[in-house]
Amino acid sequence: MIWEALGAVLIGLVIALAATHWLADRFPSRTLTLATGPVAALLGALLTRSILGPGYPVLVLLAALAMGAAMLSLLLRPRPPRLRGRVRPAPPLKGHRTA
After folding, report:
1. Tens-digit pLDDT profile for residues 57-80
2. For FRET with 2, which of 10, 32, 57, 82 sits at 20 to 30 Å CA-CA?
3. pTM over 0.90
4. Where are the alpha helices (DSSP H) in the chain?
5. Rounded to an integer, what distance in angstroms lies between the CA atom of residue 5 and that of residue 68?
């Protein structure tokens, strides 16, 4: 069980590092992100281990991956307006007056 827990923490840390690397501007805090990833993955692994019991290390680590990614996705902010595609106003219709 100790190896599953360490593996889950490592998976969560890798997910959090990847998230802060690729989406750094969309997370509120790097520290919060790096703390949430391993804790969420460990929680997912322990929950799965308690449900399935011993003998399913691959499923436990997959659940850790899923739980870590799900919890990190809750921290994501929308893209800043400066990065979105600019929307141009539609041209006025011919023959219509605008107020």
Report:
1. 999 999 999 999 999 999 998 876
2. 32
3. no
4. 2-22, 30-52, 57-73
5. 13
